[in-house]
Amino acid sequence: MDWTQKIFINHSPSQFEDLAFEVFRYQFQHCPIYSDYVKVLNREKPASLTEIPFLPISFFKSYQIHSSSGKAIEAVFKSSGTGGERSRHYVQDLSIYEKSFVLAFQKYIGPPEKFVILGLLPNYVEQGDSSLIYMVSHLMGLSQSIRSKFILENTQEIPALIAAARKEGRQVLLFGVSYSLLDLIDLKIDLSGCKVIETGGMKGRRTELSKAKMHELLSKELNISELYSEYGMTELLSQAYCKHDLVFTTPPWMKVLYRDQSDPLTIVDGEISSGINIIDLANINSCSFIATDDIGIKRNTGFEIIGRIANSDIRGCNLLVD
Description:
Rossmann fold, 10 helices, 6-stranded mixed sheet, alpha/beta, 22% strand
């Protein structure tokens, strides 16, 4: 089955729900760990999206979450590991991941060929096996610029790269992990005229700041007029983006549901602080229904991330599968 013909379209709410149920049935049949988890919860026949079981994201640290359909594993992406053991996402079709992140990038940021793309993501490069590095590297290739590159130690070259891009009539797009972007303030780097996508957090390198405070600081000190954040993770193959309002918007094949923090199997309206559940249809060959460790609030048609669950554990939901 060519799932891409079904996944990457603008779904109406009813079409999304129908496809989500089709994906659920497929993964219940072909993803052994998810199937076992659903059976433990006795939810083999959910009647609505709110009854579909969401797999705790911690399972990606302990189990191989992928389809048993006979497809070979094309890549294994690993999380940054700042919390200890690294999660692993076994990807059976990289073309689905590529289509997902390219379409989302085009929708929220623009055509890759419009930019010189720089990556200020040193810890991801150093650790290797990063889905973020794979994404940014692929977008660099699509930019078709010899100046697109990862910046590791020589951050002082950024102004020269910006100047060269301007001479070519291109704008610089800088993907930066949060702590590295804050480091640029000490170097007095001027990023005026650039688009900047902040991602990844502090990774234990700096004191954590609220998203609002960090955006305010980066925009002011680095002269950034277009500052975005990317919401993505190793366990997902899709990303959400936000701008200065800090409200993330998902592409049509990705949907956020909210769960009660004291009863993680109960879906709520998200009007107050809630656990974040993600339906990512691009995860067709692993699990599309993920209970993340993030806490958020529904904001109109989007969502805001306001924190993490203590100890990154989903209480009452971490049923171990034999």
